[in-house]
Amino acid sequence: MTETTPKRRRPRKRVILLIVVLLAVSSAVLAVWWPYYCEQVAIAKIDELGGLTRTGIVRPRWIPEAVDDRYLVLFERIDAISLSVPQVGDAELEQFRKLTNLQILILNNTQVGDAGLARLRKRKKIWDLSLDQTQVTDAGLEHLRELPNLQWLSLKNTQVSDAGLKHLQGLSKLQLLSLDETQVTDAGLAHLKGLNKLVALSLNNTQIGDVGVESLGELKTLRYLSVCNTQVTRDGYWALRLALHGCDIRWTPPAK
């Protein structure tokens, strides 16, 4: 009588297949659920801070148009944020890194500075950014180069000066730019020359004067220009009127 060697048990093909299927399904569910979870966490945090959000459904290509949006809650994404709250600083913007559909961002009257702008890098869908009365400086504007779709930018009452404007040169889609109450002078206006889609520019309460009129006159796409409370004289105003046909120019005489 001879001993028989016990056969080594091998996983059945069905078991292996089942495991593969379960892993695939789990990965698919996680890929859908995790972004939704991150968005909901951000909404809750922004609401807690006193801000506002707007959301919309981002329909994946593989879902037919016949499927109603009310069944696509998991694909709800933030597209606009208004967070004009004084206590908001750079740290609060960390959560924005995961907001892939963010398009409009208003951060007026906050403590957000250059480090905060770094956290917005690669949010390539942003086209409207308002940073009035923040701590943003010239160095921070370098991060805006990674927002290629930016169309509206407001920097009113910030520390931005001539040096910062050179970072705007690559924003080829920029249409509206507000530089009211900044440190911009005549020398910095030359950096705006390549903005071929710029239609509205506001330079109220800055130190620009007649020397900068030549640079402004080269912005032929402008349809609105405001230079109130600047050093632009009456002669400079008329020079602008002659150079920018069809442009609505707002001007007040320099204070004596």
TrEMBL record:
Please report the name of this protein according to its UniProt entry. Internalin-A
A Pfam match is: LRR_6
InterPro entries named in the record: Leu-rich_rpt, LRR_dom_sf
Q: Whose protein is this, by species?
A: Symmachiella dynata
Gene Ontology annotations of biological process type: SCF-dependent proteasomal ubiquitin-dependent protein catabolic process
GO cellular component terms? SCF ubiquitin ligase complex
Gene3D superfamilies from the xrefs? Answer: Ribonuclease Inhibitor
